[in-house]
Write a structure and sequence with these properties.
The structure is a homodimer.
Chain A: H1 5-12, H2 16-24, E1 32-33, E2 39-40, H3 43-57, H4 62-70, H5 76-110, H6 116-120, H7 132-136, H8 143-153, H9 157-180, H10 187-203, H11 209-221, H12 223-232, H13 236-254
Antiparallel strand pairs in A: 1-2
Chain A binds a DNA duplex through residues 4-6, 15-18, 20-21, 25, 34-39, 56, 61-63.
DNA sequence: GGTGCTGCCTCACGTCACGTGAGGTGCAAG
DNA sequence: CTTGCACCTCACGTGACGTGAGGCAGCACC
């Protein structure tokens, strides 16, 4: 029926001290005490604790959580709605950060440098207008800096050359299929897409079909990647994306 | 070429004090100072700051971040890989939390109560074996508590009754289609699924097709929901899920 | 050439959400 | 009966900054 601090702490994955603290600041005052002064938490207290931990996980300060939970106009359902909203927003933000990391990895793999604006913009607090004239003299424009970047990315010159050679080979083969007029979902083309994916997985980072598709989208949407592919052969960026998508669809059907 | 504290702070969306702090603890010491003692941050410093903010966002303590970044055996690519790994892990965790919230919302909507274990298990630190005997006397088993829950969820008795009536009507209509032998993707059935979705959106929480599909999965995977549907008519849980999926596919094709 | 403003500096104490003992109590088992 | 365990209440420590206080550097304007 009612529970001790230790039980609640173990149950909720927090420490006893945390419960003491929440009691001290009035955020979660146990509904009862034993004659010996031991805290006793009821089921309603646990419900409240669950809400507290949820909002805490989402980064709310404890005082604010108290305000939210003590709001008499807020029923449990409205809390759930708000939590769901906050969660999806946070998930989207993290997905953008993950996409930024993927961009950075892919850029490194292909030897492209990102501008500093792009480096920070994933953190959200970034307003491009705020430093318009600052953006002019781009930090990454020194050849010396680019060289340092490149050296850091290169394990050894020979490794790097081998990677370039294989990548160029794949790109060239895909460009040939495009020139030959093959559709992007032709078996020969999706096979090349698969080889592209496996190549990345082996030498750079684990790349499943979903991530590979995101890369493909990037090739047409990010002008730096588009430029790289269009330089090999006009239309190759889109063709690569479509081939990657077709290969993913093929794999999904097979699996 | 090099930047002042104010510039960097504005750029990265942090305060000047934070940069001072990172300087104090040796996490990010600017490469240079002017004769007046003003901090000057180079491009390499900004790269490091970006890494710092990334790891900080992922919840690392500053001291640990310093260790990570000062590890001579860690090249930039390994950082990116680790960050991507951490991000996807965090995203998965938040997705599970969101799913738990969806379960809670749907449970409330359908008048089912979750056990306290289920309430806390999304926080991850939860080990079911750890309190096996504790699980026996489930907190939610008191009729009094369930009643309190139900009262809290109910805006007014009449509202609640109206909702029940409409929901029962939809469920009954779907059960009839199942009894009639209609396939789940029959227009009449997907129309009912769409009505179900809109009903939830109107009276409970915004429910797009994607979320609706997750709900459908829940109906067959979560025994409490399964039991609720099977009680209406055997096979209805799966039938609902398939109808919902078919309706979502139909909407995707149309859109 | 003073005056004021802005941006930077260095202490140094405040805060939030706890962590970490120190020292004492209640009670069930050996 | 004492040993052990879980609980209690101070009370100070900590991490990651926030928030002034008091002061210097350079530039604009009167």
């Amino acid at each position: 029926m009612s529970h001790s601090v230790g039980q609640v702490a173990g149950f909720a994955g927090i420490t006893v001290r945390t419960l003491h603290h929440y009691d001290e600041i009035g955020l979660l005052v146990p509904s009862a005490r034993t004659t010996a002064g031991h805290r006793r938490y009821t089921d309603a207290d646990l419900d409240r604790l669950q809400q507290i931990l949820f909002y805490r996980e989402l980064g709310f300060p404890l005082e604010e959580i108290a305000v939210l939970l003590d709001d008499p106009a807020a029923d449990p359902v409205s809390h759930l709605r708000r939590q769901h909203h906050l969660l999806t927003a946070r998930i989207d933000q993290l997905k953008e950060m993950a996409a930024a990391v993927e961009r950075a990895m892919e850029a490194r793999r292909m030897g492209i440098n990102l501008t500093p604006e792009e480096k920070f913009e994933v953190f959200g607090d970034f307003d491009p207008d705020e430093h318009a004239e600052e953006a002019e003299r781009r930090w990454g424009d020194s050849a010396q800096y680019r060289e340092a970047q490149r050296r850091a990315a290169t394990c050894s010159k020979e490794d790097w050359k081998a990677l370039r050679r294989e990548m160029d080979e794949i790109h060239g083969a895909v460009a040939d299929r495009l020139a030959a007029g093959d559709p992007p979902d032709a078996p020969a083309v999706t096979a090349l897409a698969e080889r592209h994916r496996l190549f990345i997985s082996r030498f750079s980072y684990e790349c499943d079909h979903q991530m590979h598709c995101r890369l493909g989208e990037m090739y047409v949407q990010d002008e730096r990647f588009t430029a790289t592919y269009e330089a090999i052969r006009p239309g190759l960026a889109r063709y690569m994306r479509d081939a990657i998508a077709a290969n993913a669809a093929r794999a999904a059907d097979a699996g």
